[in-house]
Design goal:
Elements lengths: L6 H19 L6 H8 L5 H5 L3 H21 L8 H11 L5 H17 L3 H26 L8 H20 L9 H16 L1
Helix pairs in contact: 1-2, 1-4, 4-5, 4-6, 4-7, 5-7, 5-9, 6-7, 7-8
Organism: Saccharopolyspora antimicrobica
Keywords: DNA-binding, Repressor, Transcription, Transcription regulation
GO molecular function: DNA-binding transcription factor activity; transcription cis-regulatory region binding
Length: about 200
């Protein structure tokens, strides 16, 4: 009886290998040859799942963004606790543990690559639009002033949080031991005090 191969599982495994190579050696380390070797496949087997490095990179980018979105929805506080919901959502995007520090390393490599790849750039722009909209909803709810999510004060705060989150993800690459985690947690505390004003 022929062996049944789960092709979706194989694609996920290849993406995980690409992520690990990027974490360890940056974007340049994730060549087709190194991915094949690390995944333990024959040379031509990779093309069955991904026709090019760009297709692997696109799948890796989508995987990291999906994981970020999933983490921001995990263990969400009760809807009536708007401040806790905002804290959870903001913290999900900050490098507050090794997993998120590693994810930041992958995203930074992929952001750089997306400058020359319009498909990846649009994928990330869509992620940013969704992130901003969801963040603005949570900020408006936490402020409790009856403002719509597109109110200037709310959108300004959403922009600030996104800017700080991206900056923190870049900066953490220079401190992969997590030395800046207390600073990021203190930022969230200050943000929530400011929002409550």
């Amino acid at each position: 009886m022929p062996k049944i191969i789960d092709h979706d599982q194989r694609r996920r495994e290849i993406v995980e290998v690409a992520k690990q190579l990027i974490i360890e050696g940056g974007f340049e380390a994730a060549t087709m040859r190194s991915i094949v070797a690390a995944a333990g496949y024959a040379n031509g087997a990779l093309k069955r799942y991904f026709p090019s490095k760009d297709s692997i990179i696109a799948a890796t980018f989508q995987s990291v963004l999906a994981e970020m979105n999933e983490r921001s929805g995990e263990q969400r506080p009760e809807p009536e606790d708007a401040e806790a919901a905002l804290r959870h959502y903001v913290e999900a995007a900050l490098p507050l543990d090794q997993y998120r520090i590693d994810s930041a390393r992958i995203l930074l490599a992929l952001w750089e690559h997306s400058v020359a790849n319009e498909e990846l750039a649009e994928l990330y722009r869509e992620h940013l639009r969704t992130w901003r909209a969801q963040l603005a909803e949570r900020i408006a709810a936490a402020r409790g002033k009856g403002e719509p999510p597109d109110a200037p004060a709310v959108t300004a705060l959403a922009g600030e949080v996104i800017g700080v989150s991206i900056g923190a993800n870049v900066t953490c690459l220079m401190f992969p031991d997590g030395a800046l985690i207390p600073e990021y947690r203190a930022y969230v505390d200050r943000l929530l005090r400011h929002i409550a004003d």
